[in-house]
Design brief:
This protein is mainly α and 73 residues long. Helices cover 59% and strands 0% of the residues. The longest helix is centred in the middle third of the chain and has 14 residues, at 35-48. It starts with 5 loop residues before the first helix and ends with a helix. This is Transposase. InterPro entries: IS150/IS1296_orfA-like, Trp_repressor/repl_initiator.
């Protein structure tokens, strides 16, 4: 589970893009411990869009049968 959810991250990044403050100011305003986190979110959204802030689904792993099939192949 991530510390900050998508909506919170989006709100912080939108505040930055609207010119409400710099990285440090927004980190203090929203109660984020490090301003580097805000910087990373802003750069990520600028490069990849807001959907990049969403948590990615993890791969559940491979079944034993699949692994054996690969070895036998």
């Amino acid at each position: 589970m991530s510390k900050y959810d998508y909506e919170f991250k989006k709100k912080v990044v939108e505040a930055y893009f609207q010119g409400e403050g710099g990285y440090r100011h927004l980190a203090l305003q929203f109660g984020i411990l490090g301003h580097g986190v805000v910087r990373i979110w802003v750069k990520q959204v600028a490069a990849l869009g807001f959907d990049s802030l969403r948590k990615r689904a993890r791969h559940a792993g491979y079944t034993i049968q699949f692994k054996l099939d690969v070895i036998n192949y």
